[in-house]
């Protein structure tokens, strides 16, 4: 019998309908019509999106599909920076603000499209001085500063393949990524700033390039000019010295549609990190289309994605997608609770942010400290709220929608992955929103929830989230490990398997409930960790929760929960009993935690995902494996 499971956790009948003005003014005015048009002519749909961009040479064929390998916009020639910069500089946006940077202590720098174009061209010419050419790999290990974006786009400008490594990684993680990509140049900074502290980066790079024989030069952005770090001239060069005497014009390299644009390594939460390869044309079209239609970006919007550029969210929805559209992008070296829990809302108020895109883990942190902080600021500028990175549980949705959006801003929950390159499932702006459900497959995407054999499950049932047809921004391979790429397409017959469990709701809405390996089998029953965690968080005392399975002689596994309490609640045996009873009444007796431990924090990756295996390893007294992505 085909395997599926019922998930009675979320109210499938509850939904919110935005003011109809959103739908009337949206780029996608009617989801049903747009999706039907896509299904009637998938290649024609994507060709229409591509024609909105500029190309050196148009394609001979939209898609060449030889399972499991795709080529999009076959034989087309392009450069993504021509669409992010040149086409705006050459029209009415040349003096429009492209990038607003806000430092942790309130410093501000502004780049128009013309200025950003010039800075990208200058650094591209600087890279050429170092001998970087088309196809070379460049590792970028930097804080959240404009130079990080400039470096990325400079690589793309000359056809070099960038590999951005998040500036919070340690020596071993950075060394592995440099060596695997065989990076020719590493670009870094002396320090990054976090919660008022200066954290050295250059010293990490100095260790990380040991035994990395491919590295020829290290470019260092010196931020602390009061105590400038010493540079080792035989290997290292100052960022601004590299730019001395270079031109602010640099012709864009003509790239084939399928030339690699970048390599981005996954977090490594299971096994060795994978170098996901994205290519020039398909990624450009996919991120442009989703930025425009999912966020409904308008020319007067001020758009802020709070992710770090070192993750795929930053690549797709800080840099390439919004800049292709011609948006004004906010980049902030900020944390949500420093210098106080109002830091994000102050930035939103000061800069007039209209579209705000953040992670559920941040939303739950805001919930924990209460509405008093956002209520200090005028957030009437906001018109669209977005969520990314993990499932947005119903309680967090409600708080986000009512407390931040004042029940007037659509909440765009988004599901996608490093591998997909672009958003795949969301509630389009103007469409009804269902708390707990990410939404529907975007026009352009064929997603489904299936059992192990690939058979679609019935509404109300759960299974494995899959994508049934290729899409432009899909990964092309895993760097140096094509066999690992093929497993995405060979796990469930005829589908790309995302590795996530999901539930099919009414009217095509899909609820993401967590990774397929985040399942606890208790007395023969499959219990999703996200289900139990969401039940715990729905209690008024709980801010965040994580659960693991512990081996048990009788049941196979029992559930242990780790709980962070909201302000105003204190740990007690009575509260433990209340929470266990609450889960019983929410999910049933089989899902009741056998143990609850109150904690001050949970182990998370830098992108905010809870690392349950670290909790389990500590509980079992075993090695947690690769923890290079762990937030300190």
Secondary-structure topology with pairs:
Blueprint (H helix, E strand, L loop, with lengths): L4 E2 L13 H6 L5 H10 L1 H9 L10 E6 L2 E6 L2 E2 L1 H10 L7 E6 L5 E5 H17 L7 E5 L4 H13 L2 E4 L6 H11 L3 E5 L1 E4 L2 E4 L1 H7 L8 E5 L14 E3 H4 L12 E2 L3 E6 L9 E5 H15 L7 E4 L6 H14 L2 E5 L10 H9 L3 E4 L1 H10 L14 E4 L6 H11 L6 E5 L9 E2 L13 E2 L5 E4 L10 E7 L9 E2 L3 H9 L5 E9 L5 E6 L3 E4 L2 E4 H9 L4 E11 L3 E10 L7 H15 L7 E4 L13 H9 L12
Helix pairs in contact: 2-3, 4-5, 4-11, 5-6, 7-8, 10-11, 16-17
**Rg (C-alpha, Å):** 24 Å
Widest β-sheet, arrangement of strands: 6-5-18-17-19-20-21-22-23
**Fold-level CATH name of the largest domain:** Rossmann fold
Low-confidence stretches: 1-6
| Percent of residues in beta strands | 15-25%
Distance between the termini: 45 Å
Helix and strand composition category:
alpha/beta
- Count of beta strands: 33
Count of helix runs: 18
Principal-axes shape call: globular
Helix content: 25-40%
Number of domain modules: 3
Main sheet: strands, sense, barrel: 9 strands, mixed
CATH class of the largest domain: Alpha Beta
Can you name the CATH architecture of the largest domain? 3-Layer(aba) Sandwich
CATH superfamily of the largest domain: ANL, N-terminal domain
